[in-house]
Amino acid sequence: MSRVPEQRRIAYLGPEATFTHQAARQTYGRGARYLAAETIGDVFNMVGQGYADLGVAPVENSNEGVVTSTLDLLMDFDQQIVGEIILPIRLLLISRESSLDSVRTVYSHPHVWGQCRKWLETNLSEAKLKDTSSTAQAVALVAELKGTAAVGGELTAELYDVPVLVKDIGDWKENLTRFLIFSRHPAKPTGDDKTSLVLSIKDRVGALYEILRPFGDSGINLTKIESRPSRRKAWDYIFFVDVEGHRDEPELKNTLKSVREYCEDMRILGSYPKGAVIGGDTQ
């Protein structure tokens, strides 16, 4: 008798119908079991303690920049990035009201405001903007409150059965959010990978140049560099770096060895397949 494969457990930043949930569902399909977490830290904890096989969390938006809490948690947990998801974000104004004139309060996640600020200033300049923990929570509130609207995705409108008042209220046509997939186990090379690192450099003149030079000498492309406070002392920074290649490839392995000589500390956060934009205009 053949053994039935276990259902893959995916932890994500919830509640249900958030953009993170949508990214996970479009990547792993209906065959996975999706576990909603209240915070990004909870996603990491669920994976670390074995309650989930994989975790999915947002790390940056193409217009609003990085999600700093995800970067900070990558330093705190000993988990490996094993993939990335790039999801087009289509923002909708969701409300039971029949016209914009009736909307006095708009709810959404704080990261959303910067993605539709111009539209809101032009069309709802008198409305109050109130933060929620997720776009899904925003729509859940709007489902029960008169004179309100939420900014969210189509999945949230469907889940809470609230009509879409205005479609496509984003300020940019190309609005993408990148999500990281992480696990307790590293990913194997695919031939089209990238590697994420966190570097702590020595406090001296030219230190940043010294750690970047080996990549240039080896012809390895840096696709991203982001600084964050180290939380050790004031004005002390660490750097998150993405480079092309897998950590097990000889050329990158030798380059990382050279880089390590100039760092106080270097940690490889993971090597994983390069992500492609998914989902098209399906939100």
Give a description of the structure:
Helix content is 27%, strand content 33%. The chain has 283 residues and is α/β, with parallel strands linked by helices. The chain has three domains: 9-89 and 175-183, D-Maltodextrin-Binding Protein, domain 2 (3-Layer(aba) Sandwich); 93-166, D-Maltodextrin-Binding Protein, domain 2, CATH 3.40.190.10; 194-268, Alpha-Beta Plaits, CATH 3.30.70.260. Helix 1 links the parallel strand 1 and strand 2 (33-37). Helix 8 runs antiparallel to helix 9 (250-260).
End-to-end distance, in Å?
41 Å
Strand content: 25-35%
Write down the secondary-structure element order.
EHEHEEHEEEHHEHEHEEEHEEHE
Number of helices: 9
Whole-number tally of structural domains: 3
CATH class of the largest domain: Alpha Beta
CATH architecture title of the largest domain? 3-Layer(aba) Sandwich
Largest sheet composition: 6 strands, mixed
Would you identify the CATH H-level superfamily of the largest domain?
Periplasmic binding protein-like II
Cα-atom radius of gyration: 21 Å
| Structural class estimated from helices and strands | alpha/beta
> What low-confidence regions span 5 or more consecutive residues with pLDDT below 50?
none
- Dominant shape: globular
What is the third-level CATH name, the topology of the largest domain? D-Maltodextrin-Binding Protein, domain 2
Give the helix proportion (percent range).
25-40%
The chain-level mean pLDDT equals 89
